[in-house]
Each structure stands twice: as C-alpha cells, then as structure tokens.
Amino acid sequence: MRTSLDSIADLPEAARLRLSFDPDKLQRDVDQLSERTRGAQRSVVGGGDLTPFTKIGWRFLALRSLGGDPDRTDAGGPGIEGFADTPWIRHTPYLAEVLASLPTELRSARLTSLAPGVTVPEHRDTPTGLPYGLIRVHVPIRTNLGAVLSIDEVEHRWQPGTLWYGDFSRLHSVTNTGDQARIHLVIDCSVSPELLSLFPEQFQSRVPMSEVAYSRPEIPLQAFELADFRCEVPVPPCMLRLDDQAVESAEPDLLAQVIEHEGTLVLKVSGGPSIALVHVGGGDFRFQGWTEERGVHLDFFGDSPRAVFYTRCGRRRQQITRTAALPQS
Q1: Are residues 149 and 22 in the same domain?
Q2: For position 57, what pLDDT does the model report?
Q3: In whole angstroms, what is the distance from residue 15 CA to residue 27 CA?
Q4: Does the model's pTM come out above 0.85?
Q5: Which residue, 160, 183, 210, sits at the end of a domain?
Q6: Residue 134 and residue 315 in contact, taking contact as beta carbons nearer than 8 Å
C-alpha cells in the first residue's frame, strides 16, 4: 500500500524558492570577511558532543549558531541554549536582511566555502527534511562552472542571488573543479506554512501535509507552574542520539531530573547533557535547539506519573514511556 511518506520521497530533490537577492550586495558582504575567519566544519553526535574539525578545504563561518557562539560551525542539537546571531552578523548587513526575509524560525546560518579541487564525498544529512521539521536552504554567493552539487544523481549549478531548497536527506555530494572557491549561505529552517508557500506551486500541490512536521510555537509556562513538572525520570539513551528513533532496547536507561533553572525547565541527565525543555502546549516539550522530531510529554495525573519520550517522522510517532518520581511534598 502506498503511503504519504512515499509521496515525500517522490518530490523533486530540489526546488528554487520564490525569493531572490542582489548578487553584488551578497558578494560585498562576503568581501568584508577575511578567509582566515572561517572555521572548519563540525557535526553534532550522540549526547551533544562535537566531532573533530574536518581537515578538507571545506570551511564554515557561523552567522547564527547555538548561543550565538562564533566558534560553533555545526548545525546544532539539543542543549541549554537556543539559536542566536553571532558577532559576525554585524559585518554582513545584507546577509542579515536575507535571513530576516525568511518567514520562519531560523536555526543555524553559515557561510560555506569549498576550495578549488575539493570534493565532499556522497553522504546524507539526517534527520533533515519536511517529515522532521528541519529543512536546509542555500543562497549561492560565488560559484563557477566547475562547482557542482549532486542530489540523487541530479547535478545542480545554482547561481548567485537565488534561493534553493535541497532534500539533503538523500545522497548528495559537492565538487569544485573550478579555479575559485564556491561560497554559499546555508540556512537551517524550522518548517512553517509561510516558508512552504515560497515553494513552486507544483511542488506545494504534491506535498502530503499530514507528513510535514510544522514547528509549534513556544507556549511559555507561568512561573508558578514550573514546580508542577519537577521530577526524577529514567531517560532512554536513544533519545540523546539524533539518528536514533524511540525504540525499546536492552541498553540501560540514564538517570535524569527535570529541574527549574533560570525560569525554565531543564532535563539534567546524570553524566550527560542538560537540555532545556520548550513547552509547546498540553505538557508537550521539545528539546531546546532541536525540532519537532523528538521531545517528551510529562503526564503527572493519576496514580502513575509518567514521561512519554517520542520521536517523529511525519505523522508516524514512536514513543517510550517511563515512570517518573515526583518530589515529596
């Protein structure tokens, strides 16, 4: 039987969106930045740790990052802090306008520079895509005929000033056989109806809306509510690994507490990360710095207080339930 996720897989691998920008202004902003300011690429792995810097000629400069840290060149992951502009944004006023023009909650935004003669091998970026509530868009700034992006074996040569979506959950690679660096502004976005409206109408008409993980806005808790959610709870380790789904296993749980910290709730994992919890309604919390793809529902009614950890791909939701221990009154 055909499913809606099959329809997602059948969508085009890329689409040009209905915004465009001034190539000369883009280039002028980039010229304000020295090549030595660009850091090497890093990625987030299980538990929020960062991989070592890459050693190939693929350089990144963060305009937005977790906590506004200019040294965070990764795409981000669950943690205490949300995304914010880095100090570099003050040097790139037009790029700041570009970011502000996108009608959605922005996550990371990075300038990427691929040196001549460098190839980024075929890989997938997961979990990204409409079913996970996180899409990646590109604004090319400097390119050449030898700079080629391949997605699902389809070659692309995106031109400066255009805005493109790519489904980078599919196999893709980049190569630059030209004589100058290929520079793109790469923006990770939460999915909103307004952002999806920028896609070509033909693309929009084929999207199964039930499979899109639209971002829910934060609904801040009142100060007097915070104590209602304090607890001790075991956390399945799979919830801390972004490539893993919520599936029961023989792996032992991690001891954690939900505590109050500076006016918000934090899931503090013993010997692991601390993750702020963003309330999105009805006792549902997504992890700060992450998307609708995973979170926890805290249900303390009845005789068995519980935490329901969940992961999501489109309308498919997998969950693991753990008994919570409430503070003694």
Answers
A1: yes
A2: 81
A3: 23
A4: yes
A5: 210
A6: no
What is the pLDDT at residue 46? 39
Positions in the chain short of pLDDT 70: 1-3, 5, 34-56, 329
C-alpha closest to that of 213 among 192, 198, 242, 199: 192
Q: What angle do CA 285, 293, 60 make, to 5 degrees?
A: 110
Spell out the residues 6+ positions from residue 227 whose beta carbon is closer than 8 angstroms to its own.
260
Question: Residue 328 domain-assigned?
Answer: no
Structure confidence at residue 1 (pLDDT): 52
Q: What is the pLDDT of residue 7?
A: 86
By residue range, what is the domain housing residue 140?
4-210
Calculated CA dihedral for residues 57, 107, 87, 98, nearest 10 degrees: 90
Q: Kind and range of the H or E element at 26? A: helix 23-31
Q: How far apart are CA 73 and CA 142, in angstroms?
A: 20
* CATH classification at residue 134: 2.60.120.330
What is the tens place of the pLDDT at every residue in 96-154?
Answer: 999 999 999 999 999 999 999 999 999 999 899 999 999 999 999 999 999 999 999 99
Residue 218 lies in a domain: no
CA distance 115 to 59: 8
Terminal C-alpha separation, the chain: 52
CA trace torsion 140, 143, 146, 151 (10° rounding): -10
Q: How far is residue 170's CA from residue 79's CA, in Å, rounded to a whole number?
A: 27
